[in-house]
Design goal:
By secondary structure, the protein is α+β, with helices and mostly antiparallel strands. The chain contains 2 helices and 8 strands; from the N terminus they run αββββαββββ. The protein is 19% helix and 36% strand.
Length: 154
């Protein structure tokens, strides 16, 4: 764990359930920029299951929501030429559960921006395991301004 994730680099005190490094009971997603894509590997635990061997759909949603949000904020940071990412929040997102997501193997989560303006990005993401896409996501993530409760949360 020598390389710092986007979350550890830009939001080490963030307590978000999905991606906050400071939330000891959270999912602690660790997202890494790889070219135009943001990638994470995450290992489910039995307490994340909907039933034996299969990941809960709500956990799948949280993984995709947070990971896609980090793809959006990283993209906006680069687009704006800023040294730190803007705080972004989810405006909308939809997931499609394509097939059961196993809990006995690490999952690969990928996301990339498909459309962006200066203050928002539309992101598509996937969760893959054992060579198959298990779930997909498409969402809109918006950079918030002063006065919004999430402003400066990182």
């Amino acid at each position: 764990m020598s390389e710092k994730s986007l979350q550890e680099t830009y939001a080490p005190h963030n307590a978000c359930f999905g991606c906050g490094p400071a939330n000891e009971k959270g999912l602690r997603i660790r997202s890494f920029a790889q070219g135009d894509e943001v990638v994470a590997t995450w290992s489910p635990q039995p307490h994340h299951e909907a039933f034996p061997g299969v990941l809960n759909g709500g956990i799948i949603g949280a993984l995709l929501d947070c990971h896609c949000n980090w793809a959006a904020t990283h993209h906006l940071m680069k687009k704006r030429g800023e040294p730190t990412p803007p705080c972004t929040v989810t405006a909308d997102y939809a997931i499609v559960l394509k097939r059961p997501c196993p809990t006995d193997t690490p999952l690969t989560i990928k996301a990339h921006v498909v459309e962006a303006t200066n203050d928002r990005a539309v992101v598509e993401g996937t969760i893959e395991s054992q060579g198959k896409v298990r779930a997909t996501c498409k969402g809109t993530f918006v950079a918030v301004t002063e006065g919004h409760p999430a402003y400066h949360r990182w």
